[in-house]
Amino acid sequence: MQLATAQTLDIPRYRRHLDAELCAFNEGWGLYAERLADEIGLYSSGIARLGMLSFAALRACRLVVDTGMHHLGWSRQQAIDFMYSRTATTSVNARNEIDRYIAWPGQALAYVTGKREIVRLRERAQHALGPRFDLRRFHHAVLRNGAIPLTLLDEEIERWTTTEA
Description:
Elements: H1 2-7, H2 13-16, H3 23-39, H4 46-70, H5 76-86, H6 91-103, H7 107-129, H8 135-143, H9 150-164
C-alpha cells in the first residue's frame, strides 16, 4: 500500500519507487500494518490470526539467525537448522531466508526497527493529542511523503502532531 501511495505523489521519480533503500520505512510499515490488522480485528478467524502469529515468529527468528551468522559466526547450515526447527516454514524457504540474510546483513533488524518506530511515533502522538488523535489522519501523515528515513518521519509526525493540537 505504501509503495502504491508513493507512486501517486508529486515527488521526484526515484523516490516514488524506493524500496530497498528505505527498507526500515517500507517494511516497517508492512509489519505495522499486520499489527494494526490484528489490533482492529480484521483477521477473519483464529486460523487466519494464527497465520499472522506464525509469520511474526518467523520474523523473530530472522533476528536471531541474522545476529547468529553475522556476530556469532554461525554457519549457513546452523542458521538454516535453527530457523527450520523453530518456525512453521519449509526447509526450502528456510534456506532462501538464510541466503537472503547472508547477502543483506541487518535487513531483518531494519524491518523491526521501522515497525517499532512507527508504533513509538503513534504512541507519542496519541499521548500528545489525547482524544483529538485520529488514527486515519496519523496514517496519512506517515504515508503522505512516500518512503523517508525514520529520522525525517519523526520530524514529520512531530510537525503533524503540532498542527493537530
